[in-house]
Amino acid sequence: MSPYQTFARKLSALIDSARADEGAPHSYRELSAAIDRAGGPSMSPAYLQQLATGKRINPKIHYVEALAKLFGVPITYFFEDQEPQPVGEAKLMAMRAQELSPQGRRQVMDLLELVERYERAEREQPGESR
Question: What residues does the HTH cro/C1-type domain cover (predicted)?
Answer without folding.
Answer: 43-78
